[in-house]
Amino acid sequence: SSVKQTGTNADIIVLEQTWSRWDAVKRYLQSDQFTILLGAMKLLGKFYDIRINESSQTDGLKLVETVRKE
User: Fold this and answer.
1) Confidence of residue 54 (pLDDT cuts 50, 70, 90)
2) What pLDDT does 21 receive?
3) pLDDT at 36
4) What is the tens place of the pLDDT at every residue in 16-50?
5) What is the CA radius of gyration of the chain?
6) DSSP state string for the chain
7) How far apart are CA 39 and CA 13, in angstroms?
8) Global pTM?
9) Which residues contact 57 (CB under 8 A, 6 or more apart)?
10) Rounded CA gap, 57 and 34, in Å?
């Protein structure tokens, strides 16, 4: 995992994680750790997006919702 700020906007923080297997990604998206991260993003940020495999913002959010419902 890596956490970094991008460009000149100090309000933008990027958390990047690399996964080798899809089942590990699904377990993480369903984990308490990810639930806490989502809560923090909603509480601290006006806007947030989730990108998975460089998908669009909408696709990433939809995928997270789908996996968390399983």
Assistant:
1) low
2) 86
3) 94
4) 888 888 889 899 999 999 999 989 888 887 777 78
5) 12
6) -EEEE-TT-TT-EEEE---S-HHHHHHHHTSHHHHHHHHHHHHH-S-----STT--HHHHHHHHHHHHH-
7) 15
8) 0.72
9) 49, 50, 51
10) 17
